[in-house]
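Notes from hallway chat w/ T.B., transcribed later so I don't forget. T.B. wanted the structure written out for a chain they're using in a teaching module, and asked if we could keep both sequence and structure tokens in one place. Agreed to drop them here.
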Amino acid sequence: MSENTTEVIVGGVVLAAALGFVLYAGQLTGFSGPSGGAQEYSASFRSAQGVTVGTDVRMAGVKVGTVTDLALNPETFRAEARFTVAEGIALPEDTAAVISSEGLLGGSFLELLPGGSPFNLEPGSEIEDTQSAVSIVELLLKFASGSGGQ
């Protein structure tokens, strides 16, 4: 009888540890869903190259949220991104959403550039001012061919 009790206790501890690791991994990768205090916004991009669900949303280099959904709008042929921003961060109406890169070999992230408007966006609003990802390969090809956009 004591062997069965010991096995049940050890199995419960192993199960609790496994559940803890799954929850921790979900929070680390951003797949745990929006937290209770997160506000959701959306933006439309011509190209969302390098952005996926779970990509960081940053302001001034600090992570303030996560991309929660990315889909193609079949009517406009633009990438529609939904993302969360931590509660307590008010976004001015003229905030810009830019897909930035951490460098030549770094990953992409969604950068929010707040404007100077005295009025703030309501949670659920769409950010109108967007800038798509810049392809380094396209820039190098333009430079090499000498057609610098003229």
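Follow-up for T.B.: Helices lie at 2-29, 136-145. Might be a good example for the class.
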